[in-house]
Write a structure and sequence with these properties.
homodimer, alpha/beta, Rossmann fold, UDP-galactose 4-epimerase, domain 1, 2 domains, three-stranded mixed beta sheet, 9 helices, 13 strands
């Protein structure tokens, strides 16, 4: 990695900020690509910021020609299911076409390894009835076009499919939302200023949570050792109920936190744990593998991740 | 069909011209969408021409709002494999994004039935190693997004997958190329002005050829009777060697035609007939059906198609 030119897209995002810090520390020459100038400061510590709208084909080619990367970590994209219902075309343009502009631009850099961050929320065309939401469609097609471009134009393209990533930083995931609620409750300092109860009716839903810093290390493994054309799943291997995660976070709260747990477990027969999308039994995919095959292991315990998320909000969203 | 507002995209193309004529004759109120004003004359006989660049999202929405179609036959798109290698992104933009702009625009016309012309050259994501060319990728994704939009937004979307379409008109298919060569040979009127020999080294390649006018009738069947979300294959059911087709066309020539047949059959052991892409044994697809299930049958004999193609070139590319 030392001295290698690594281009990271989506550098101002939740994973992007951790990735920039990690690869900088590892000695890479990091170019941190952001869409707008404003959040550049978030990634400036030692990395070279680069403002580029990836949906502008010519701007992408100009960036590739200027930066001349040896490796690319493509994290940019939209990732909100509700937003994808509101503007599905933007999801197709951002997650599919922008990725294609990047891949096409990188044809002038033969040998440049390209890791594209996919999603476990993809569907299986021809098997599943259809995508459950436009986000799923966009990530499914992003993966297909990335693998196809790799095959058609002999590009070393790799795919990663992380599970639910958690950790300090600007995430809109479940852990971050609850942690923010806890810190707001702590700040209220009394019953008067307490926020509305946090609603958690799906406490039996199972999810595999992984610390974002572990995921970034996994990206490093895939970039270094991954096999071209492969899809690498990244997970901790442990599924937990949302209720368990909530309990662990609430145990770290310094004051009482208003919660709405929905119906009492005694009210109805306890529902069976709900399989998460990631937890669905998946048929083996010829091109899919797990990053643990490359020697990577999750290292950050769930307690550490949750404590760090709380600290992030307690410190006014500073640091990672 | 009578009095129904039908919007046909790609109206100036090979199939589009036949479709406009057919549906006009059937009493539909046809809007013939063309990309540029210049070829409008080709489709003006009774149809309402409409100039629209389908890769312009706003223009597409304006067209839908103005025309307010009851049915759409989406024939527009790029369809040259060699060209798709030269500019693969244009194929993705034209065959995938433009189709999405149309589908998204039509969400304001709930109930509007939309027939999208797909291709037999698609690949099977997750099963095949990858698409053989960018054209295949673009048509595969066009089909996926069309079916997905239908599922996500409850749109009555139907897919058609025609085999090789032949007939009079501006086609760049094998039959048209050879017919044009024959007519040029006839026009030369002597050994001096004869064109270079027509090279046909793949005479054992098998293809299913169908008259374009039969295909247009099949589109009518699918629009009328097809089941939403289904893929309808359209073929004559008979595969023929390219050598047989060439022989039939040459038998209609009025003068000798210079041909280059490649190595004599006696030179090597005769190679086995080559399976065409369309002739590959395909695994059954849950969503796929054949338009013959709807009562459609091919009606135009191969002799008629070939004679009409020759006449088209003999008459200076006039008429259909």
């Amino acid at each position: 990695m030392k001295g290698r030119r690594l281009l990271i897209t989506g550098a101002a995002g939740f994973t992007g900020r951790h990735a920039v810090a990690y690869f900088k520390a590892a000695g890479a020459e990091v170019t941190a690509v952001v869409r707008k100038p404003s959040p550049v400061s978030a990634v400036q510590d030692g990395a070279q910021p680069y403002v580029c709208d990836l949906s502008d084909r010519k701007a992408v080619q100009a960036m590739v020609d200027e930066v001349r990367p040896d490796e690319v970590l493509h994290l940019a994209g939209r990732n909100s299911v509700p937003e994808s219902w509101r503007d599905p075309l933007v999801y197709m343009e951002t997650n599919v076409m922008a990725t294609l502009y990047l891949l096409e631009g990188l044809r002038s850099r033969p040998g440049c390894r390209i890791l594209v961050a996919g999603s476990r929320l993809k569907y299986r065309p021809g098997e599943d009835a259809g995508p459950p939401h436009p986000y799923s469609l966009s990530k499914t097609l992003e993966e297909l076009v990335s693998l196809a471009w790799g095959t058609l134009f002999k590009q070393p393209v790799l795919l990663a499919e992380p599970c639910n990533l958690i950790g300090p930083g600007p995430s809109t995931g479940f852990c971050s939302l609850l942690a923010e609620h806890i810190v707001r409750s702590e700040a209220a300092g009394g019953a008067e200023g307490l926020p509305q109860p946090f609603k958690l009716s799906s406490r039996h839903t199972l999810r595999d949570f992984l610390d974002v810093r572990d995921a970034v290390r996994a990206y490093d493994y895939i970039l270094k050792y991954g096999e071209t054309g492969k899809v690498y799943k990244i997970d901790s291997g442990t599924e937990r109920e949302l209720g368990e995660i909530a309990g662990r976070l609430l145990a770290l709260a310094k004051t009482p936190v208003p919660m709405d747990w929905g119906p009492e477990p005694g009210d109805h027969a306890a529902p069976p744990p709900v399989q998460s999308a990631a937890g669905k039994p998946e048929p083996p995919e010829a091109s899919a593998d797990n990053v643990s095959r490359l020697g990577w292991r999750a290292e950050t315990g769930i307690e550490q991740s949750l404590a760090d998320i709380l600290d992030y909000y307690r410190n006014g969203k500073e640091g990672r």
